[in-house]
Amino acid sequence: MSQIQNDLLLRALRGETVERPPVWMMRQAGRYLPDYLKLKAKYDFFTRVQTPELATAITLQPIDQVGVDAAIIFCDILVIPQAMGLEVLMEELKGPSLPKIIATQKDINALTTEGAEESLKYVYDALALTKKELNGRVPLIGFAGAPWTILCYMVEGKGSKTWDKAKQFAYTQPALAHQLLQKITTITIQYLKLQAKAGADTVQVFDSWAGSLSPADFKVFAQPYLIQIADALKGIVPVILFPKGSWYALKELSESSAAGLGIDWCVSPQIARELTGNKITLQGNFDPAKLLAPIPAIKKAVKEMIDAFGVQNYIANLGHGITPNVPVDHAKAFVDAVKEYQAPSL
Amino acid sequence: MSQIQNDLLLRALRGETVERPPVWMMRQAGRYLPDYLKLKAKYDFFTRVQTPELATAITLQPIDQVGVDAAIIFCDILVIPQAMGLEVLMEELKGPSLPKIIATQKDINALTTEGAEESLKYVYDALALTKKELNGRVPLIGFAGAPWTILCYMVEGKGSKTWDKAKQFAYTQPALAHQLLQKITTITIQYLKLQAKAGADTVQVFDSWAGSLSPADFKVFAQPYLIQIADALKGIVPVILFPKGSWYALKELSESSAAGLGIDWCVSPQIARELTGNKITLQGNFDPAKLLAPIPAIKKAVKEMIDAFGVQNYIANLGHGITPNVPVDHAKAFVDAVKEYQAPSL
After folding, report:
1. Could you tell me if B80 and B145 are in contact, meaning their C-beta atoms sit under 8 angstroms apart?
2. Which chain B residues touch A if contact means CB-CB below 8 Å?
3. Contact (CB, 8 A) for A139 and A9
4. Each residue of A208-257: pLDDT tens digit?
5. Nearest CA to A247 among B248, B45, B30?
């Protein structure tokens, strides 16, 4: 295993002292980058995801062009439903859709949990190739969707504002929901282990729709599966859990096996620290829309964010994915502001 | 002024002792009711809103059919942009849209704050007619959108998942944003005063998109205007503030002139009480999607909700608007469960 030259991210996840916080951005390999758009114009979504050379090229773009301290593999959380046997369509402007949805015991029985090794081989190949191309410059992040979030798509068949149908399924047929969540969890654990084996230095679990659940329902339908994943990966690879919107769960998740917790921008850094009692490395939480502000305003807000989180046990990031309308120099200003950070003198 | 027979809602808002919590549902006059759908099939949205006889008929439907303890006038928050001089379109399946958006000083200058009396007369007429038809059965609730939420629509021109454009406007041109927010606040205060004069016994201010803001930005762009409205209405009519998603602001808003605070379903009743220190009446917070669960599950969850909030200083409601796919008997089960509530014996 090659030595990583800039290992700030991994040191922060281990709780080691760092000279400045590491910085990366959710969706950093994506549509705000002109070079990404060029590849997007030539190859459809799943061709980009499933061709290791393309996925690697896209993954590396923000390292070279924006200067982030970590690479995150270009992929999608919906490769898990695919690996379990469902068709996933990714249509421009329409977002993802699954023509066959999950509604019954029979539907769940038909899902395989054995698909991670074979059918997601392209992900491991992309990780291995990226690892090689990175040549130890920065760590490589793997990822998966959280079981609740994957259930949402499997039951709704497409994006939703309220995830009504997914919640109706969970509230009306909780036993089926738990079966489904467990199947997703099982394959996700295998998937993340194989990502680590292929070269991922850390993995993030995106619970993008966790915040659609009440605190009580999060504890039933989301939290146990996040904890199961973190436990299963313990000692193999550090895990970052990102339960977007579920500020109410931060305390309990801070006591899990996870190495880091993603924080969205609707939690103040102070409250996030209070809730997690400095027991875990926190990652976040710049409002992605603030990247549309003028550069001096971005730099000022980044400084305030780091002042509030503190330099240690902290990974600078956005509170959600970067949006396509962000100018590249604004993204770069965000990254630069973290790198230029000087702690207030005591 | 006629005596109100069932004044549970008003007593709860005044912090007086009640024998059981009052109950109503956000969007209770709406698309889950077959009788509403009949009127919807015959008259377009703004005809329904602007014809007092229709608005009154719709407002009364859930009183008779679901048995709620309050009527909320059938109207829309976007009547304020209309009264300020903007065109608002309401197209089936597409949601609201504003062909002319607000972007510049000139755009803001062109907005009137004098429109509340004349151009919104149909709202006061509907309130007066509803009041008469209610004949003192239950209190009548008026409402308006909060300034931040109205700004969101004025700047974006339509609904948005992230309200990026509205936030970009606020972060890039804060002085213009504050001018716009102040103009909206000014006309909204006049509007709500006139609603009270026409018969509204209480008014709710819906900050539906408050939760798109970070805690720090909420304090700058949302909170001062909510407080200004609550202060201006003090002594005239009790105000319920509903900052959806902004759990982080509950403590400070509990110290405002508001009589009640709406709580969404992503805050546990215990935490809501802790944050507000029992200083204010709380309203909420049943997950609307849980109305899709089987009736026994609804009734059990309602009981748990009231157990957790407590009977006093509490208004049972949903944590967001009822969705069109809820069966009427499920909505009724929710209301019945509140009415049947028996406090756990001590």
Report:
1. yes
2. 161-164, 167-168, 171-172, 211-217, 245-248, 265-268, 271, 285, 287-290, 292-294, 297, 304, 319-320, 323, 325
3. yes
4. 999 999 999 999 999 999 999 999 999 999 999 999 999 999 999 999 99
5. B248
Q: Do B167 and A271 touch (CB under 8 A)?
A: no
* Burial class for B159, CB neighbours closer than 10 Å (0-12, 13-18, 19+): middle
A135 vs chain B: nearest CA distance in angstroms? 37
Nearest chain B residue to A244 by CA: give it. B266
Q: What are the Cα distances from residue B122, in Å, to A181, A334, B79, B152, B344?
A: 51, 49, 11, 25, 46
CATH code, B8-259+271-283: 3.20.20.210
What DSSP string runs through B208-227? TTGGGS-HHHHHHHTHHHHH
Contact B276, B250 (CB under 8 A): yes
Partner residue opposite B164 with nearest CB, options A265, A319, A325: A325
CB contact under 8 A, B164 and A292: yes
Q: Which of A171, A212, A214 sits opposite B292 (nearest CB)?
A: A171
Mean pLDDT (whole number) for B317-345: 94
Could you tell me if B250 and B260 are in contact, meaning their C-beta atoms sit under 8 angstroms apart? Answer: no
- Nearest chain B residue (CA) to A263: B214
User: Domain segments of chain A: what residues?
Assistant: 8-339
Three-state SS for B263?
Answer: strand
Give CA torsion, residues B255, B261, B264, B267, to 10 deg.
Answer: 40
Give contacts of B168 with chain A, Cβ < 8 Å. Answer: 289, 292-293
* pLDDT tens profile B121-177: 999 999 999 999 999 999 999 999 999 999 999 999 999 999 999 999 999 999 999
The residue with tokens 């304020």 is B80
- Could you report the per-residue pLDDT of B35-69, keeping only the tens digit for each? 999 999 999 999 999 999 999 999 999 999 999 99
Q: DSSP assignment, residue A291?
A: G
Chain A residue with minimum CA distance to B213: A266
* Residue pLDDT, tens place only, A6-20: 999 999 999 999 999
B136 three-class SS: coil
Question: Rounded to whole angstroms, how far apart are CA atoms B328 and B292?
Answer: 10
Q: Which residue has the higher pLDDT, A92 or B200?
A: B200
- State the Cα–Cα distance between residues B223 and B233, nearest whole angstrom: 16
Please provide the CATH number assigned to the domain covering A8-339.
Answer: 3.20.20.210
